[in-house]
Specification:
The complex is a heterodimer of chains A (about 240) and B (about 240).
Chain A lengths: L1 H13 L9 H27 L4 H15 L3 H16 L5 H26 L3 H9 L4 H16 L1 H14 L11 H12 L3 H35 L12 H4 L1
Chain B lengths: L1 E10 L2 E11 L4 E5 L6 H8 L7 E6 L2 E2 L7 H5 L2 E4 L11 H11 L5 H14 L15 H13 L5 E5 L7 H16 L3 E5 L3 H7 L2 E6 L2 E6 L1 H6 L4 H11 L2
Helix pairs in contact in B: 3-4, 3-5, 4-5, 5-6
The chains are: A mainly alpha (about 240), B alpha/beta (about 240).
Chain lengths: ~240, ~240
């Protein structure tokens, strides 16, 4: 494993770059960030459509979510890889295909997380906001979404982690991400598949584990800030209503 | 100020409000009481249209509350509503809760809203808790912040839906004190509450409801010493037997 790491680590991390296309872990991370960065707003949009008071928005978004969630990711990748070029009549790069597929796939899952987050908030939150004269949209933006997204942070992070792992599906349409790079290293070495793929797993694990830990740290910080420590001086002594 | 005329509401087949007709005058404090399930909360929630009605009219300062063409968001800024469960926004500090509507709905500047917000927190005795989050406050303090929040748009009417029912007994007094001072300042108020001492001391009128009907109305003195309906007499003797 040491030998693999010393000679082939660069190709696992950045692919052929700078002598060829960027690949390896770098491309995996780019795919993940792009995928999630685009899926996040789309997922929120889908979630809002799913709970919208208008059937015009609710019905199609529900269908999209159910269909996407009911099909394996690899099928979606194949469909977009073979069908989209036929439909639009021109070639689409494997990279674009993968990003778009990941975005649609992740958005469907994320929308369910966001929707659950919104629907699990007490009704009183909406009633209080509306009673203050806030519109539906304003209530959603200022009151419901911030709480829902915060409450759902652990689920959203695990979704991000799973996006990182799911970029490995790019292997089947020859996107030069981490798994593809490992495949190439394996072909070059021929005799050490166990070591190569153990290294591959280790890299995925390290990245995902580090991210999960960061998420926990962020989560803990917000929780502490909200729970707060009340200084002693703010005791009831200074409370004029209680005194009165 | 508030006029109910022939108000009827059904939940499916259940007749929740039956032919309610009554007025709340300007500056009047009305306490709505009655057994649970009698429609008190439903009635008060129809005033800012948290509940729709199927028949009749409610007018507030001449505005038809249940008119479909009413600008509901604009209308609601003129009615303060205080909930049993406080419903503070947990992701905002006390002062942010109070300043939210003035900045986001009325479009006031942040500084102006902060200044008024602090004055309101001062009024409910919680200026020193301005930067605390709801979880850091006791139930009584949360409810006082909620009252300050409802006052932030300077509504001419305040509605209280069992404001002390979710509180530990020792915190009831601080919330009632704030409500009493509001009443003294001439605020028009409608309060659903089981605090009969508050009704006796502060209310101008007591409305007694049962089974969706407004059974009896009168001054607290008359209602408590000499209720005219059987149902109210039984309700009051049940209260006293505790």
């Amino acid at each position: 494993m040491g030998e693999i790491l010393s000679t082939h680590l660069p190709s696992l991390l950045i692919g052929q770059y700078p002598n060829g296309p960027l690949g390896g872990l770098a491309l995996t991370l780019i795919l993940s960030v792009l995928g999630l960065g685009l899926a996040f707003p789309l997922g929120i949009g889908l979630a809002l459509c799913r709970i919208a008071p208008y059937a015009v928005l609710r019905v199609p978004s529900t269908i999209v979510v159910y269909v996407v969630r009911g099909v394996p990711l690899v099928m979606l990748v194949f469909w977009s890889y073979f069908l989209v070029p036929t439909l639009i009549g021109q070639a689409v790069s494997a990279f674009t295909t993968l990003v778009v597929t990941l975005v649609i796939y992740q958005a469907a899952y994320m929308s369910e997380i966001v929707r659950a987050g919104i629907e699990s908030l007490p009704r009183g939150q909406t009633e209080a906001a509306r009673s203050l004269g806030m519109s539906y949209g304003r209530t959603m933006r200022s009151i419901l979404l911030p709480q829902a997204l915060y409450n759902m942070l652990p689920s959203l992070i695990s979704q991000f982690v799973s996006t990182i792992k799911e970029t490995s599906i790019g292997y089947v349409i020859s996107v030069h991400e981490l798994t593809y790079s490992a495949g190439q290293v394996n072909s070059a070495l021929l005799t050490k598949p166990l070591q190569v793929f153990a290294t591959l797993s280790l890299i995925y694990f390290v990245v995902c584990f580090a991210l999960t830990r960061c998420a926990h740290a962020v989560d803990g910080r917000i929780t502490r800030r909200r729970a707060g420590v009340t200084p002693l001086v703010e005791s009831k002594v200074h409370d004029p209503v209680l005194q009165g | 100020m508030i006029r109910f005329s022939k108000v009827n509401k059904w939940y499916g087949k259940y007749h929740a409000l039956v032919d309610i007709s009554q007025d709340v005058g300007k500056g009047e404090v009305v306490v709505v009481c009655g057994p649970s399930g009698s429609g008190k909360s439903t009635l008060i929630r129809t005033v800012n249209r948290l509940e729709e009605i199927q028949d009749g009219q409610i007018t507030l300062n001449g505005t038809q509350v249940h008119d479909k063409s009413l600008d509901l968001n604009q209308f609601r800024t003129k009615v303060g509503f205080v909930f049993q469960q406080f419903n503070l926004f947990p992701h905002m500090s006390a002062i942010e809760n109070v300043c939210l509507a003035p900045t986001k709905v009325a479009g006031r500047s942040r500084n102006e809203a902060l200044e008024r917000g602090m004055a309101l927190l001062e009024r409910v005795g919680l200026a020193h808790k301005a930067s605390s989050y709801p979880q850091q406050l006791s139930g009584g303090q949360q409810q006082r912040v909620a009252i300050a929040r409802a006052l932030a748009m300077e509504p001419p009417v305040m509605l209280f839906d069992e404001p002390t029912s979710a509180l530990d007994p020792e915190m009831v007094g601080e919330v009632l004190n704030v409500m009493k001072s509001l009443a003294r300042d001439g605020m028009t108020m409608m309060c659903v509450t089981h605090e009969m001492n508050f009704a006796r001391e502060v209310a101008d009128k007591v409305w007694f409801m049962d089974h969706g009907q407004l059974v009896e109305t009168g001054t607290p003195a008359a209602f408590f010493s000499n209720p005219t309906s059987d149902r109210a007499r039984r309700f009051l003797s049940d209260l006293r037997s505790h």
